[in-house]
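Deviations from the work plan: none for this task. Representative record:
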Amino acid sequence: MENANLLEIKNLTKSFGELNVLNGIDFTVMQGERIFVIGPSGSGKSTLLRCLNCMEDPTTGEIWFNGENLADLKVDINKHRRQIGMVFQQFNLFNNKTVLQNITLAPTYLRKKDQNKIKTANFFKKIANLFRKNKKELAPTISAKQITEEENERAMKLLKRIGLEDKANAYPSTLSGGQKQRIAIVRSLAMNPKVMLFDEPTSALDPEMVGEVLQLMKDVADEGMTMVVVTHEMGFAREAATRVLFMDEGLIKEDGTPEQVFDSPRDERLQEFLSKVL
Amino acid sequence: MDWANKINKFLDTMSSEHYQKLLLTGLWTTVKIAILGLLIGIVIGTIIATVKVSPKYKLLPRILDKICTVYVAIFRGTPIAVQLLLAYYVLLPMMGVKGVPAVNVGIVVFGLNSGAYVSEIMRSGLNSVDVGQMEAGRSVGLGYGTTMLKIIIPQAIKNILPTIGNEFISLIKETSVLSFIAVSDLYVALIQHVAAVKYEWVIPYIVLALIYFVLVLIITLLIRILEKILAKNDRTKGKPKRKKQLVS
Ligand SMILES: Nc1ncnc2c1ncn2[C@@H]1O[C@H](COP(=O)(O)OP(=O)(O)OP(=O)(O)O)[C@@H](O)[C@H]1O
Ligand SMILES: [Mg+2]
């Protein structure tokens, strides 16, 4: 599976009414890549990221993931989103859920839903088996209780990993920004995603909390997670990226290794941009 | 005015167990219809509000949206007394339904009516929840409906609790029109039965006002307590309560 194409974006455009925000984006995300997207404000970075899991529906173009085109409205997008983690600038933890529930809610619910489908299928198989000579085997199932226990255990492990197990029963409103964002990252991890999208994960944080979030992102990266990260943290991009995309006016103007992009930029706008932010 | 005489007449009537029971039953009927009406109203209001705030690319949501608009317009555009009379004396007989207790008609009409009002409250509640909450739910693969049910609606209800309390209070007060369809509520018990015994209405009217007033006071208090509990839950659920420090 090494070097397999995970996400393939083909001629992606997005307009909001008259405003053309993305003007034909092409790139491929390979397994294990860490793609950092940089560019001036309003260049369409967030829009691009949000199109990747169809949080915004693309206007035209294709997004290939798991052998299906996500831009096709007939695709069951929920199924694919389970494998595309997303981390938001504003954390977006579920305010009415405890920290633990924030992490377990989706995996527990979705696994139970899957199990219910299997159980229903089994039920019909059982009935059909009454009339069959060669009985068909039933699919294995697990109980709802077991799923809850497994997910709680997994979530506690994840919380331990970020040193927040004592916050398991706290509500998001009692946490610091850094804690919220780390929990949001862990919430995504709990889904076992194939790729994770980060939209300026540290931009809403107090400076002293940026470090802890970046550290967690590094740890996740070291485990081989495929990532697409929109950020204004150029130092972090240079350090953690395997590839950097520079966006301007809804186009990818430059695409290369961190060294290429930061040390010998070719595009004029990129040179101008770097001179401002570095 | 001969107050002593009037009060005596009232107390005299009320000393009979029959009238005490009548009054309590009337009181209970009033409260029951308001509570059940509100519950039905919350369910209907939530459904309407959800339809209203949902995206409308497809045909079905658009049709539902129109139906909800008409529904709200009808129930907000006519007095509840008229709705009660229409339901009880026109609609049910027209449909050939007989023998439905007036109380049940009251509950349903109050529910339908309050649904129209709650839907507006609920809509503002749903809009008050940050869009990031929906996006977060969708991003982990939950469907629109699931995210609504588990994340958005609970937060919306919490935000609008004080306003829902107000709706409950107006419902309680509006129940006095139930006498139009001869439901034995608080008003009927006091004014049509108790007062009629001695043809003395002054004290019963004052008592009626007092009872409504106290009812509303109690409800206001209960809502305050509920709000406090919810706010506290938010911050410390599952955490041991910190002991108050005596020495600082
Ligand atoms: N939902 C929307 N409706 C209308 N216009 C939008 C919407 N979302 C984004 N835009 C517009 O699209 C353009 C690109 O926005 P986008 O958020 O993708 O930029 P960005 O590169 O992420 O900028 P920043 O660095 O400031 O986050 C902006 O002009 C923005 O106003
Ligand atoms: Mg952005």
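Chain A has a mean pLDDT of 95.
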